[in-house]
Amino acid sequence: MKKVVLGAFATVALVAASSASASSVGIRVQNSTTAVASPTYLNTCAAPSPALTPVSPSATSGTSTVSCGQNSAVAFDYTSGAKVCRFNLSSLYTPGNPILGTQGYWTPRGTGTSRAGSARCTVTLTNLDNFGNYAWTVRIQ
Fold this sequence. Notes:
The protein has one helix at residues 2-17; strands spanning 23-31, 38-44, 59-60, 64-69, 72-80, 83-94, 105-116, 121-128, 133-140. By secondary structure, it is mainly beta. The strands form two sheets. Strands 1, 3, 4, 8 and 9 form a five-stranded mixed sheet that branches. A four-stranded antiparallel sheet has the order 2-5-6-7, with no helix packed on it. It is 11% helix and 52% strand.
């Protein structure tokens, strides 16, 4: 009897732990400078699809997506003239605890940091859902 109960509990715990779906990070780049902004650094868990591309002055790129499973993260720079912005975006999953009865959840994080040329770098969360899929607009100014 004890083996059956323990086996059933372990099965429930495995199902609860594996029920999280894949998350993704969507990226749109808004260039508010007077020169073309180009990606100059990329560190990510998977290649963005489509790839990050240069953005014309006063324009916004299409959406690129990074998807790496339950946790997705990307760090990248955009350079426009002497201005450089580093952007860090992520969707991180915290699993639930079946013993305590808590559910898992995703946490979006996004930062923009000036690395050169008095750039102003902003990050705005533009869309989110309950499955860890987040869309961000990053802006170099």
